[in-house]
Design brief:
Length: 462
């Protein structure tokens, strides 16, 4: 007699299949309708397809063995989509990160607590560190375990290991008091606060329990008439502590909306050690995970000092600065602000000099939805630069960004078609991309070629 349940074709299977199909239909619509390539939607769609395949194939009817009358999981038999990419074990509490990848909560939390800001599987920089429960996968794992007589370990062992003691709280209050004391006390307290907020995520959470904690932390900076009066090491420790606080998801709104924070971060972008400036940019990047913070940071004028720091080109700061600009420009109003503040000129100049091409092309592609940005690219020699990158680079993503930008430039400025035609006649650059590029690159390249052919035919007809 066959067992009932999701893997055997009963009502549970029908319901689960329909739910997966509904989610997949939504994701496919997002992928098709989005002019850009929505990698997050693609990743999620792949997960849905894998799950549907498992349900259809009924591939795991008896993947357990008996040991003292208790059924246990055979590690190699667990469906891959049920395993955490970090632990390679069956997930107890699956959560989704910003890139759309799913991990077991305890293992991805340890990854993030260690200071990592990338997705372990894709290596993409995380636009935020919010962990969203993957209820669908969790329910499927639960049903799979039920069908196979498997009992998951007690989740109690995954509770936060960094619970604070009363002494920790007393130390926290003592350090805040020292921030309004002598310079030596301030420097000692700021250094200790920086280390504690880096090492103990729970210590970061303490700042959310009092509305006065962040102003107390910042008091040495807010009381100074000029950042030049602040000791460089004290300045860097305080700004870095702000960065550490902003990593904690529950702090993001509180930190950004504390009136003195963004102005002080903007001052830090302009002055202090390169470590201070880089960490100020990283803090703005982390805070901008929230849409409300994107708007607040953009309105505060933070894009201009970020662009200025990008133009200076400090190697230690450029990645954090580029990440912050990219994240902020997801908001349309901030794209316009970035263009107004000279982002196109700065970015194109660096790309022409082959500096940080990968990161900056992504920003330029995002800005290309602005007509003003497109006009500036054409005026500043963007067409020639982008065509040369397509010829030279082996990076599919860079080719894709270049041809997408060229497509927009050429369709908004007919005078640029001659450059494209000359490039095609000399090197066949567009034709090669139309044949060998990614699906999006092929589509854009083919669109340009069709336009070129129409223009040639019209000329011959005339």
């Amino acid at each position: 007699m066959a067992k009932s349940g999701v893997l055997e074709g009963g009502p549970g299977l029908v319901a689960k299949t329909m739910e997966l199909k509904r989610e997949l239909h939504k994701l496919v619509k997002v992928i098709v309708d989005d002019e850009d390539v929505n990698l997050e939607a693609i990743d999620k769609a792949q997960q849905m397809l894998s799950a549907l395949k498992e349900l259809k194939m009924n591939k795991y009817p008896s993947l357990y063995f008996h040991n003292n009358s208790r059924r246990e999981v055979v590690s190699g038999a667990v469906p891959e989509e049920f395993k955490c990419p970090l632990s390679k074990e069956l997930m107890r509490d699956p959560v989704i990160v910003a890139t759309g990848q799913t991990y077991d909560r305890s293992f991805i939390q340890k990854w993030l607590k260690s200071g990592n800001r990338t997705c372990p599987r894709t290596q993409q920089v995380l636009s935020h560190t919010i962990l969203t429960p993957n209820h669908l996968i969790k329910e499927m794992i639960s049903q799979w375990c039920k069908n196979h007589g498997i009992r998951l370990s007690d989740s109690a062992q995954y509770l936060d290991e960094d619970a604070l003691t009363r002494d920790d709280r007393d130390q926290f209050l003592s350090l805040l008091e020292k921030m309004s004391s002598t310079l030596s006390d301030q420097k000692e307290a700021a250094r200790e606060m920086r280390l504690l907020t880096k090492r103990m995520p729970s210590f970061r959470a303490l700042f959310g329990e009092s509305c006065s904690a962040i102003p107390q932390l910042l008091s040495p900076l807010s009381q100074s008439k000029s950042q030049n009066e602040v000791q460089p090491d004290l300045h860097e420790d305080i700004i870095t502590t702000l960065l550490n606080l902003s990593i904690h998801d529950n702090n993001k709104k509180l930190v950004a909306e504390t009136p003195m924070v963004i102005p002080l971060l903007m001052d830090a972008l302009r002055s202090g050690t390169i470590g201070t400036r880089s960490n100020a940019a990283a803090a703005l990047f982390t805070l901008s995970a929230l849409d409300s913070n994107k708007e607040l940071i953009g309105k505060s004028g933070a894009l201009k000092p970020l662009i200025d720091l990008l133009e200076e080109g400090h190697l230690l700061a450029v990645n954090d600065v580029a990440s912050a600009i990219f994240n902020l420009c997801i908001l349309h109003e901030n794209k316009l602000r970035a263009v107004r503040d000279g982002a196109v000129r700065v970015i194109l100049k660096k790309i022409m000099n082959r500096m940080h091409v990968d990161e900056l092309l992504s920003i330029l592609a995002m800005l290309s939805t602005s007509q003003t940005a497109v006009e500036q690219m054409g005026e500043l020699g963007g067409v020639e630069c982008l065509l040369s990158i397509i010829r030279e680079t082996s990076c599919a993503r860079n080719k894709e960004n270049c041809i997408a930008i060229l497509f927009i430039i050429c369709h908004s400025d007919r005078s640029k078609w001659k450059q494209v035609r000359d490039e095609e006649n000399t090197y066949g650059t567009i034709s090669k991309l139309a044949e060998n590029g990614s699906s999006r690159a092929k589509r854009k390249a083919s669109g340009i070629l069709e336009r070129l052919n129409r223009a040639i035919n019209l000329t011959h007809t005339a």
